[in-house]
Amino acid sequence: MINKTLFNSITMPYLTSSQTECLKWLALITMIIDHIGVAFSNAYPALSWCRVIGRFSYVAFGFIIALNLSRDKVNFKSYFTWMIATAFLSEISFTLFEPNYDRLNVLFQFLSVIGVIWVYKNRQHLNSWVMFFGLGFFIILSALSDYGLPGLLYCIGCYLFLQTKYTQFRLITMLTCVLLALFVNHSFIDNFGETIVETISVVAVVIGTMIFILHPKGLRQCNISISRMPKLFFYLFYPVHLTIIVGIKYIFLS
Fold first, then answer.
1. Cβ–Cβ contacts within 10 Å for residue 182, how many?
2. In terms of C-beta distances under 8 Å and separation of at least 24 residues, what long-range contacts does 211-219 make, across chains too?
3. What helix, strand, coil percent values describe the chain, rounded to 5?
4. Phi, psi angles (nearest 5°) of residue 145
5. What are the two backbone dihedrals, phi and then psi, of residue 104, each rounded to the nearest 5 degrees?
6. Left if phi > 0, otherwise alpha if psi is -120 to 50, otherwise beta: which for 147?
């Protein structure tokens, strides 16, 4: 027999506006911590643990993207416009921040997620060739971007979780999201996890993040009232904070 109480307890309604903003702020803060670790851990090895804390960021942002795309009415034109403009603008800061990195910045990854979901939602109205080349383009874009194809799969997994209406499949999609979140971070685990403690720490942060987001007694218990941050502030935060970190690194470590 299926334990209906269990499935009812994990049913995930949309987050409230304040809960979504809370997750955004936590993602932004942990992103800064992560990038401080990237910029300064070579000079100060202790800061490498900032990168462990930073595992929260992409997992949270990916869920937010999936959540926004799961809503009934999505303004894809606005979403594409903001993401394309900010992604290209951010590439300048990202190149200065990671001059030897061979991938595009993470906003191109989120752009590929938006593109794939747009094709999926409009599949009834698109020519089969448009769908084929559209999906191909966005999948290639994902592969060339930060976090690669695992990053795309994770966001799609979160989208499917939010779209799943039958409680019998909710647990399956939830567990899939957790596994994909670990898959997103597998390269980091391989590179950072030189000891069992370091490996367990990364895995614990990733799984803890997913529990915080998905469990009914996690983020959904947050009753703090948080105003929605201005769209311009949210999109420009990424390139601006990278530029500031690059400036600080140049001043103190040049």
1. 19
2. 213/23, 213/59, 213/60, 213/63, 214/10, 214/12, 214/161, 214/174, 214/177, 214/178, 215/10, 216/9, 216/10, 219/15, 219/19, 219/22, 219/23
3. 80, 0, 20
4. -100, 170
5. -75, 160
6. left
Following DSSP, what letter does each residue of 33-62 receive, concatenated?
HHHHHHHHTTTSGGGGHHHHHTHHHHHHHH
Question: Closest by alpha carbon to 138, among 124, 161, 119?
Answer: 119
Q: Which amino acid is at 122?
A: N
Task: Report the sign of the C-alpha dihedral through residues 226, 12, 157, 141, in that order.
Answer: negative
Q: Which two tokens stand for residue 134?
A: 């559209």
**What is the DSSP code (8-state) at residue 227?**
P
pLDDT in tens, 82-130: 999 999 999 999 999 999 999 999 999 999 999 999 999 999 988 999 9
The identity of residue 194, as a single letter, is E
pTM listed for this prediction: 0.91
| CA–CA distance, 31 with 90 (Å, rounded to integer) | 15
The Cα diameter of the chain in Å comes to 65
Distance CA 111, CA 134 (A): 12
Task: Tell me which amino acid residue 82 is.
Answer: W
Give the type of residue at 83: M
